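new request in #modeling-help
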Amino acid sequence: MSQTRDVTADQGTPPFLRLFARYLRDQGLPVTQQREAVAEVLFASDEHLSVDDIERALRGRGERIGKATIYRTLDLLVRSRLVAEHDFGEGFKRYEHRLSARPVHEHMICVECGTVTEFESNELYRIENRVKNEHGFLPVRRNLEIYGLCKACQEAGVELTTEGLICPIETVR
Amino acid sequence: MSQTRDVTADQGTPPFLRLFARYLRDQGLPVTQQREAVAEVLFASDEHLSVDDIERALRGRGERIGKATIYRTLDLLVRSRLVAEHDFGEGFKRYEHRLSARPVHEHMICVECGTVTEFESNELYRIENRVKNEHGFLPVRRNLEIYGLCKACQEAGVELTTEGLICPIETVR
DNA sequence: GTCCATGCAAACCTTTTGCACTATA
DNA sequence: TATAGTGCAAAAGGTTTGCATGGAC
């Protein structure tokens, strides 16, 4: 069949699996079915997946892998830098592979519908440089989330209610 | 004694307590001893306090307030916008009052010693404007943390080991 | 054959909740 | 006095760990 994947040599193994296997070998760790399966689920999706999402996707593929193994594999994927871990304040973490056209990006999260959109920001490099020069701080990893109302929710007429004090931020004490 | 606080009229009540009390009254909620005590601890400190920190500080003042009450009061303080909630990835939240000379600021966190330093960034406003114009997203709240090595740790000779893949970020799939 | 991974269940930790009792307004 | 808060302990929910078994190399 013309749609059959070419399995000659390494060609049948997708790049992300080769990279993950390389990482595991470098660390002297075995490449297991479960580890490959978790990686496959992550790299097959462009969403920000929770552990439950991953477990569900695995089950949908007929694989029954324990949560503990998923957590342990995610730890390896994050260490390998093939996967990024995020916390959008939902009480649990989400995971996203980093082999996209936009390996470095930030997130805006709609506080109404929860939709996560990615965007790039070179202003961040400027901020990091300033931090380096002005404070002698050596940046390694950053984390920028912007919470607000997405276009769709605004157009649907959603408005945000502010119940906080209107102007408590006077610089007094 | 000349150092004794002036207790005439409202003058003895510090501004933050007046603001918190105003918020509570606005919401039709009672002003209780416990709520005032939690607020006092937060406003007396310029650190980023965990719930345990707060409980300990209260105990040090001879007040024994249940964790549940602390959590419930923190919720009110955050809603009132007098206090900001942070998650530095430690597995628990930290809280910081917002009546400082720098009510809006970001954080850099040293991955070695855990020290948190604050800095301001007007580049962030530029980012938010871009997000608004380019994506129609209405920003409400932002969250920027920069993780890295603080000056002191660098000077102490600390180096960070990278165990991840050196260059996995090729834009291939 | 050795070493490590897996799976299950129990443990862990922070945060939330239910309920009898107490304090605020 | 009505209404809401407090404190305790239990529950909840995500994540980690111990241990016996099974798989990778």
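bot summary: Chain A touches chain B through 62 residues (CB under 8 Å).
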